[in-house]
Amino acid sequence: TTVVRPGFVYGGQGGFVANLFYSEPLVIQGRRDMRWSWVHVDDLGEGYVAIARAPRVVVDKQLYNLAAPNDNPTYEELRTAMAKAQGRKETIEYKEADKDVPTRWNTDS
To answer: What superkingdom heads the lineage (predicted)?
Structure first.
């Protein structure tokens, strides 16, 4: 068994990141201090291919984190930087998250 844990995926046809660019007003939903480790969809694809092509003896019983390894922006930092880069000046609106997203899972079972 090989485990692959991707970071927060961006790129391609939009999705979450496209919403960061185009939503009105600028909304920060949930914990604005949360840091995300990002990975571009093309880089993630290359990682999956490299793992699939590797000899089984190399990848078996391994865990791969496919994500940015270093200092990552908070959600608020990312969102406001994107708005600034676009020259947007609207007020930031903060909202509670609909529900909490777990950050840790019990893998003992």
So the answer is: Eukaryota
Q: Count other C-beta atoms under 10 Å from residue 42's C-beta.
A: 10
Where does residue 103 rank: exposed (0-12), middle (13-18), buried (19+ CB within 10 A)? Answer: exposed
Specify which residues 6 forms β-bridges with.
66
Q: Give the predicted TM-score (pTM) of the model.
A: 0.65
In the chain, where are the structural domains located?
Answer: 3-95
- Name residue, tokens 């003992």: 108
pLDDT tens digits, residue range 22-54? 666 666 677 777 787 888 899 999 999 999 999
Chain length of the chain = 109
